């Protein structure tokens, strides 16, 4: 029998690997349904769905390896990062799905959530006040009107697989929906600022890519994530992770 490996696990969801099969268990059945539908609509390579029995989704392993992970070195070449940028552009150019995704929250709602979280970070002593205040100002750039696009919503580099310079698949679509294209670009390059130029080169022209907005999303996403990560057993203070992303804006 193949060994069962826990890929990630917390109170909301867990992913297990058994041989070449990944089993995703999600406490939110609607989120699993969103993932299945989003993969059926996405114009980029996605894993083969083997079966879906809520709250469990079984998918096949993808060929290749990820481009890296947050807090670790990138294993991909500049050409691979550019290929990922081109794949992201293909997704963003597709007709967006009818439902809002994680990248589609309104500026008003995000600003309120961000202000509450910044207050909690300072009050609890998790982060120093000057670090929070500086990044709150940087995050303001992301809080602006945007044209809806087909967004992945959680496009971490660990969710994009490549074989050489070819993108072989994108995983974890549970947060997909209508949203801000620059949120995806920011999430993908979070902690790997040195590859932003490669990604933009592959992404191409025709959409206004405002670097200040991407910086804003880096700060906003990191501020909102720190306490959740700590409370769920992850370490945002590890080298290259969220707290270092916030420090870089200082």
From TrEMBL:
Q: Where is the Aminoglycoside phosphotransferase domain?
A: 42-205
MF terms (GO), sorted A to Z: transferase activity
Cytoplasm among keywords:
no
- Any idea which UniProt keywords this protein has? Transferase
Q: Which Gene3D superfamilies match?
A: 3.90.1200.10
Q: Name one Pfam family in it.
A: APH
State the InterPro entries in the record.
AGP_Transferase, Aminoglycoside_PTrfase, Kinase-like_dom_sf
Question: Key word Ion transport present in the record?
Answer: no
Per the record, the coiled-coil ranges are none
Q: What protein does this entry describe?
A: Putative phosphotransferase
> What organism is recorded for this protein?
Streptomyces clavuligerus
